[in-house]
Design brief:
Elements (H helix, E strand, L loop, with lengths): L2 E5 L4 H17 L2 E8 L1 H8 L6 H22 L8 E7 L2 H12 L3 E5 L13 H9 L4 E4 L9 E5 L4 H13 L4 E8 L4 H6 L4 H22 L8 E7 L2 H12 L3 E5 L7 H9 L3 E5 L1
Parallel strand pairs: 1-2, 1-4, 2-3, 4-5, 6-7, 6-9, 7-8, 9-10
Antiparallel strand pairs: 5-10
Helix pairs in contact: 2-3, 4-5, 9-10
Length: 283
C-alpha cells in the first residue's frame, strides 16, 4: 500500500479517521492525502450572504479550508516521517472523493463514521455506499480511536472469490494481526422442518452436515496460512447478528468484508451501519 486518501469534515469522527490513516500510512510508509469536499450547495448558501462574486467566494473558502487542513496536519505526530498532502475540492461529496482517489492513485480510502458539518453525508450512509458501489478502492470506516495498529481482525466469509480477496487484503493491511475467519450458516426452512414433521435427530444431522461443509470450505480458504495468527469460527445463525456478536465477544478492532461487484449486500450494509468496530469493505 503506497497511497492512502482520508476525507475529513473537521469533526471529531473525522479526526479518528485521520488518526487511523496516519497510523496506517506510517506502518506502510505510504503517502497520505487529506481531503475536504465543499459541495456546490454549500457555496450557494454562502453566496446568499456575501457580496462577492461566486468565484471569489470559492477562492476564499478554499483558502480558508486549506489553512484549516494544514492546521490539523500540523498536530499529527507520526512515529516516522511520511508525506501528507492537503486537498480541497468543490464537488458533490461522493464525486469529490472518487475524483481525488483517481487523481492520487489511492490504494485505500479512509472515512469517519459520522460527520457534523457541510459534508455530514460524507461518511456512513448513502455517500459512503455510493463510493463503494462506484469505485474499486477498499474503503475503511474508522469508528474507534486509533491508539495502536490493528491487532485482531474478523473476516466474515461466504467462500466466494470476494471472501478470498477480503482475507488477503486483511493480511496486507495488518500483517502482524491475529485474523479470525468467520462463517455463519443457516439451514433453509429450519423452523419449518419441525412443523413438517422432521425429527430432532434429522435436524441435528442437517446442522452437522452444514457445519462440516462450512469447516471444509473455510480450511480451503486458509490453506497456506497455517500459523498461530489464523483462527476459525463456524456457527449457525443469522450473519449480521452473528458478526455483531462475534465482534463484541472476540474483541475485534476491525472487520474486513468483500463486496460483490458494484452491489452492496444486506450483510455488508448492516456491518457498515451497525458494527461496533472499524470496518473495511473490499471489492
Amino acid at each position: 500500500m503506497k497511497q492512502i486518501l482520508v476525507a475529513t469534515d473537521f469533526s471529531q469522527h473525522a479526526e479518528r479517521a485521520l488518526d487511523r490513516a496516519v497510523l496506517l500510512a506510517t506502518e506502510h510508509q505510504a503517502a497520505l492525502d487529506v481531503l475536504h469536499v465543499i459541495t456546490p450547495a454549500s457555496v450557494d448558501a454562502l453566496c446568499n450572504f456575501l457580496p462577492d462574486p461566486r468565484h471569489a467566494v470559492e477562492e476564499k473558502l478554499a483558502n480558508s479550508l486549506s489553512a484549516q487542513l494544514y492546521h490539523i496536519i500540523d498536530r499529527v505526530k507520526p512515529e516516522r516521517p511520511i508525506t501528507i498532502r492537503p486537498h480541497v475540492r468543490i464537488a458533490e461529496v461522493e464525486a469529490g472523493i472518487i475524483e481525488a482517489a483517481e487523481s492520487c492513485g489511492a490504494d485505500l480510502i479512509v472515512l469517519g463514521s459520522h460527520g457534523e458539518h457541510f459534508a455530514h453525508e460524507l461518511f456512513v450512509g448513502t455517500t459512503a455506499e455510493n463510493v463503494l458501489a462506484r469505485g474499486t478502492w477498499p474503503v475503511l470506516v474508522a469508528r474507534e480511536i486509533a491508539v495502536a495498529p490493528y491487532g485482531k481482525i474478523g473476516v466474515p466469509v461466504d467462500f466466494s472469490e470476494q471472501s478470498a480477496i477480503a482475507f488477503r487484503k486483511a493480511s496486507e493491511l495488518a500483517p502482524n494481526a491475529m485474523t479470525c475467519l468467520l462463517h455463519a450458516f443457516q439451514i433453509p426452512h429450519h423452523e419449518r422442518l419441525r412443523q413438517l414433521g422432521a425429527t430432532e435427530e434429522q435436524i441435528k444431522r442437517y446442522r452437522s452436515e452444514f457445519y462440516d461443509h462450512a469447516t471444509r470450505e473455510i480450511d480451503k480458504l486458509a490453506a497456506g496460512r497455517e500459523d498461530d495468527r489464523i483462527s476459525r469460527v463456524v456457527e449457525m445463525g443469522y450473519p449480521p447478528t452473528m458478526i455483531r456478536r462475534w465482534t463484541e465477544k472476540l474483541h475485534f478492532d476491525l472487520i474486513v468484508m468483500g463486496k460483490h461487484g458494484d452491489r452492496l449486500g444486506s450483510v455488508v450494509r448492516h456491518a457498515l451501519h451497525n458494527s461496533a468496530c472499524d470496518v473495511m469493505i473490499v471489492g
